[in-house]
Design brief:
alpha/beta; Rossmann fold; 2 domains; eight-stranded mixed β-sheet; six-stranded parallel β-sheet; 43% helix; 14% strand
């Protein structure tokens, strides 16, 4: 196992895609149509609220890019209101199918296992209306979808490709104070899906390591594919550059972009703005940012007049138990006057929040990758993040931001103080961040995912041929 891990870590994402192509024999057909499963959260939902987050963005962007390389995608998700049409075209070649499974509203993610039978029934009904062989492959996201995908794969005789996104054993090993552990039923369910899948897609080599170490995944079935970022939307300047023109990834371009974004959002030009963007729950640790700001002000009280701390996002998961807990913490810390709580926003406005910020702060206890970090960097904003999960891949420590071991607010305060002490640091690091993010486009991710699909289909055919002599 250790040899597998070291080999995996030494192999870049681009190298993986190339090696996968070389291993495949000529003439192997890629899938024409994929059934993608996302039981607990719809790709049409607004990221940053409820259970919608990075996984939603991942599914939407990946599906669009797969369609652009002639792999049609049908996304099955649970209907959360009776007003939804049975099917919605998300983009050319991408269809979202709404499946009735349980009450539309008021059903928590933890209650969804009881609805998997109903959801599977809806998926099978849709499949029954098509000719045999309509779907070439199933790609499931998160363990709940994995169980539906397991049955669909067996029933349709096609491969199952699964992406965990998060893992119970990993989350439970790094719980935030007061956060509830993931239940044993989820651990059992994840173990079953790992065993059933033809291929497992991991965001990073570390995640691949965790699949092998915690869930005894077959190393030969694990493929590392870094998620991407929409570089047309998340870029240093809000104006789309003409082809061949610079996109503002210079120090001057980043500074001008930041100033323009602050005008649009009504933020002061001379402010130090550490931003939190994401779901408000203990796992994401927005409280660490607030406590770090309080430490910073204790050491440098004069900073208060030019400090603005936006928190953009809504309560989610275990954070729903205390939806106003963060506001009350800000009041107790004596910083309520400088913290701005904003609801989740659309992707275009989110890009402006990234551009306007001096630095994005991401003190998460667990992140399978951390798309928010890549999005912010693509907009020319450096990142201060916990050194957990995929964040050491997403952030180049000391170049595009700073990685912090642990969650001590004082450590984050020291990192933020570096931007206070050197006002040009955010601009210099922001330019490096924008350059770093250029290597995380969705085109590359979709191409590599297509290679994983093709390898899974080829292996399934080999297996069937061996069974029939």
């Amino acid at each position: 196992m250790s040899q597998y891990v070291s080999r995996l870590r030494s192999r870049s994402y681009g190298q993986f895609a190339g090696q996968a192509r070389l291993r495949l024999p000529g003439g192997v057909r890629r899938p024409r149509r994929v059934a993608m499963l996302s039981v607990h959260t719809s790709p049409l939902h607004q990221p940053g609220t409820g259970d919608a987050g990075g996984m939603n963005v991942y599914i939407v962007e990946l599906a669009r890019k797969l369609a652009s390389i002639n792999i049609e995608v049908e996304i099955f998700t649970r209907a959360t209101t009776g007003a939804l049409p049975p099917a919605v075209e998300l983009a050319p070649g991408v269809l979202v199918r709404h499946v009735d499974a349980g009450p539309y509203e008021g059903l928590a993610k933890e209650e969804l296992p009881a609805q998997l039978c109903a959801f599977t029934h809806g998926v099978m009904q849709a499949w029954a209306g098509h000719r045999p062989g309509y779907y070439d492959l199933v790609h499931s996201h998160y363990w709940l979808s994995g169980h539906v995908g397991w049955l669909a794969s067996e029933r349709w005789g096609v491969p199952l490709v699964h992406a965990m996104h998060t893992m119970a054993k990993v989350k439970n090993a790094a719980l935030a104070a007061g956060d509830a552990p993931e239940p044993a039923a989820r651990v059992i369910g994840e173990t079953q899906v790992v065993r059933a899948a033809d291929r497992l897609i991991a965001n990073t080599a570390e995640e691949a390591d965790e699949l092998v170490r915690h869930y005894e995944a077959d190393p030969g079935k694990v493929a590392v594919v870094h998620p991407g970022v929409n570089l047309d939307r998340f870029r240093p300047t809000a104006e789309r550059a003409a082809e061949g023109e610079p996109t503002g990834a210079s120090g001057r371009g980043v500074a001008e972009s930041r100033a323009a974004a602050r005008v649009r959002l009504g933020l002061p030009q001379d402010a130090m703005i550490p931003l939190f963007a994401g779901r408000i729950q203990p796992l994401k640790a927005p409280d660490v940012l607030l406590r770090a700001v309080a430490v910073l002000l204790t050491e440098e009280p004069s900073l208060r007049s030019r400090l603005v701390v936006p928190v953009v996002g809504g309560p989610s998961g275990s954070g729903l138990a205390k939806p106003e807990g963060l506001q009350k913490l800000a009041a107790r810390l004596g910083i309520a006057d400088i913290v701005q709580f904003r609801p989740p926003v659309g992707q275009e406005q989110l890009a402006d929040w990234y551009r306007a910020a001096s630095v994005l702060v991401m003190p998460s206890y667990s992140e399978s990758f951390g798309l928010v970090a890549i999005e912010a960097q693509a907009c020319g904003t450096p990142v201060v993040a916990a050194s957990v999960g995929g964040l050491p891949v997403a952030v180049r420590d000391g170049v595009s931001g700073f990685l912090i071991p642990g969650h001590d607010p004082a450590d984050y305060a020291r990192a933020l103080h570096r931007f206070v002490a050197d006002p040009s640091l955010a601009t210099r690091m922001g330019a490096e961040a924008a350059r770093h993010a250029q290597s995380f486009g969705w085109d590359t991710a979709a191409s590599a995912t297509g290679e994983v699909y093709t390898a899974a289909m080829q292996e399934r055919r080999r297996h069937l041929r061996s069974l029939h002599g």
